[in-house]
Amino acid sequence: MNIFQDNLSRLAPGQQDLATAVTSAAGGVLTIEPSKTGSPSARRSGRWIHSAYDPLREAQTWADTHAAACQSGETIVVAGVGLLYHVELLRKMLPPEAALAVLIPNLDEFHDALAARSFEAWSESILWLSGSPTEVAERLTKTGRPIRCLSYTPATQWDAEFHRALEEALRRVISRRAGGQLTIALVGPIYGGSLPIARYVKRALETLGHTVQWIDHSVHAASYEVMGSLKDGRNRQVMQGRMADLLSQWTLASLAESPPDLVLSLAQAPLTLPMLEHLRKKKFLAAMWFVENYRHLTYWQQMAPGYEYWFVIQKESCFEALRQAGARHVSYLPMAADPEVHCPMTLSGDDRRMFGADLSFVGAGYANRRRLFPALLRRPWSFKVWGNEWEGAEDLRSVIQLNGARIDTATCMKVFNATTINLNLHSTTGEGLDPQADFVNPRTFELAACGAFQLVDHRSHLPEVFSDREIVSFRKFGDVPALVTTWLGDQAARQAMAHVARERVLAAHTYVHRMHDLLGQIGLSQPDRIGSVLRGDRQQESLVARCAEDRPLEALLKDCPSGQRLELKDVAARIRSKGPSATLKREELMVLMLDEYRSETRDLL
User: How confident is the model at residue 179 (pLDDT cuts 50, 70, 90)?
Assistant: First the structure.
């Protein structure tokens, strides 16, 4: 029996389908070469997967780094196959009861690994995972165990799409099955476009059953704006900087009142890097949803190391820029809509006359819009422009509404609903369409949620969120007049397209969906913290079941309300409610002592 057959025999008893598939695989992906120490090493597409000098020593370093983080009761999933030295050494370092799984995105590579060296008995306790990303995710989550994902980076780069799809599938399955209640401190900005988004996020988190500590800095907007009126730019910058420091300290004080499981900030939230670093030292998890174009708003360059998690609306170049600036975890999270706000409306005749037009645009007067919109004047259809920052756009004066005043969300919804065709042109500082069209703005989702028909300039990620049966896009602004004329003449087609776009938003693009994904991603990365809460491990019923052999503790927990999350402070508060004269049991006194210690050690200030 050769090495391949011997390894296969260890695989076959538990996973016959995989053994059959590997036998049929052609191999030839890995080039096997002896290392300087004599052990076989491997290259793929000319690049070394393992050390050319000592692959065992390299694998030991990897295993030492990751084994310490693995927790009892988890399923540890390793991405990256190669010759599996790293898996062998990790398996030997973990206790026998630990579940270790290995992803197999490429059967030819696995075939080569089975033929290269003997795996011996350790391989018999490995769960080998092949199939589609969705199938693998469902198989993993059916175990009911926390999942910890590890990556052997040298062997993963050729199957990056598989690993990305699996991570997304895992995140969605975990978030779909989430039953726990987190406490989330939501830090909003002082002003700006991310402020209403923060409010949508708050409602979404509460809809999911989480407790939100809303730290609303918009109440300080008037003071911040007054400082902006200072004529001396240096003084203005100093004063606004000091106010940001003060609000950052205020945020810290608010968190100290009731420490949350997660601190979630929206773009432009006034949290300084020193404060974020202080939170990190105190073991707080902080995440940022950066709902801005990273090329235009660049303060992330200084803030990148401060947040454990960054969620962004752009991909490759944005990921790379943030990582180079010190970000540890960067994930894509596109914009969304809130169906409670962005929805179809029945308007009066007066409202339709006031807010309606054949063609409308809502937004600020960026350079490209000022340059392009005059081409839409003097046409056989009506055109209205709503929004502010249009000063000096004299050639558009006849179509700018309310003298260029900023309009609120309620007015936007009336315009969206009253307009026959809504023009959605993404902003850029240039004079034409955005040459780096790599994000989809909130208006795209909000218009669709209203059941409003729109024309949008094409974006590279638009096909991921809407098909061409749901939204009409254009690649040249010169095509817009003809598109307007065509679609004005086909009411039935417009209404049909707007209807399916709304259905798509409700099915996949609400802020509830986004918060599901965001928390699922963090839960996947933090299986013993956020993940345990999302799984429901902190619910009263789960805690009672886990302490069934400790009768006094079981009795103490059974006395607490069912169906709710329980923390030490909750049990302590229930004990204190008995009053100062109550006679307490030994375990009750121990709970109170631990709670006092917790209060002292969580002092943020």
Answer: low
Q: What is the per-residue pLDDT across 274-325, written as a single tens digit (0 to 9) for each?
A: 999 999 998 899 999 999 999 999 999 999 999 999 999 999 999 999 999 9
Among candidate residues 269, 300, 334, the one where a domain is terminated: 334
- Residue 461 within a domain: yes
Do 110 and 150 lie in one domain? The reply is yes
Span 338-380, pLDDT tens digits? 999 999 999 999 999 999 999 999 999 999 999 999 999 999 9
Residue 358, both tokens: 């054949």
Helix axes 16-24, 3-11, angle to 10 degrees: 150
Pick from 440, 396, 442, 398: nearest CA to 416: 442
- DSSP letter for 561, please: P
| 3-state percent helix, strand, coil for the chain, nearest multiple of 5 | 50, 15, 35
Same domain, 151 and 198: no
Return d(Cα 321, Cα 312) in angstroms, integer. 12
How high is the pLDDT of residue 600? 62
Residue 45: name the closest of 155, 163, 165, 162 by CA. 155
Q: How many domains does the chain have?
A: 4
Residues 173 and 187 in one domain: no
The DSSP bridge pattern shows strands 126-129 and 383-386 to be unpaired
- Taking residue 356's Cβ as centre, other Cβ atoms within 10 Å add up to 18
Report which residue type is found at 287.
A
Residues 330, 354 within the same domain: no
| pLDDT score, position 426 | 96
Place of tokens 């094409």: 458
pLDDT at 142 over 90: no
pLDDT of residue 604: 60
Chosen domain end from 125, 150, 177: 177
246 or 12, higher pLDDT: 246
**Residue type for position 549:** E
Tell me: do 40 and 93 sit in the same domain: yes
**Alpha-helical segments (H) within 177-220:** 194-207
pTM: 0.80
Same domain, 497 and 384: yes
In this prediction, residue 1 carries a pLDDT of 60
Q: What is the DSSP string of 430-478?
A: SSSS-SS-----HHHHHHHHTT--EEEE--TTHHHH--TTT-EEESSGG
Q: Is 16 a domain residue?
A: yes
Host domain of residue 49: 3-177
* Pairing, β 383-386 against β 421-424: unpaired
